Model the fold of this input.
Amino acid sequence: MYLELLILIQIDKSPKHGYEIKKEIQKDLGYLMDVNHNMLYPTLRKFTDEGFVRKHRNEQEGRPNQYVYEITEAGREKIANLINEFTEKDAKHQIEFMVRVSLFDRISKEDRNRILDRRKKDLEALLSDIERRLDEEGDGLFRDEVLRYSVSQVQGELAWIDRLASSLTDG
Done:
């Protein structure tokens, strides 16, 4: 779902052709993900068919024609719906969460808190599970090292979520 959201956000910023959409997503979030043509163009076709974007052919002399995609009002509504659709399943995936946080300026304070709370609840359950596994007889030193590192990552994200939630209360 996050890829759909990222594509629509790029088109909402300004009309773009496919390569520009891909380039902008990777500039913003390339360290988290890669956008390939097999994901991008079928999604753009789907959005065109569903009326979320309009496609205009840009004819170029001596080069292949490009299609430029432009957001529709239905596409803007879809963006809001996709940001706010943050299920328990989505909360288990860091990229789904990070994309939502990067778009917090587009949603209400209540929805921001709901998303933070859902992710925090999932991370707390994960932390408990990892700590339980650390207490069990393990397969060796390196397994335990990986688990300890995972604990530190989860604790770090939980502290970050607490800071975000605090800034929502203060702001």
Q: What stands out?
A: The first strand starts at residue 16 and ends at 17.
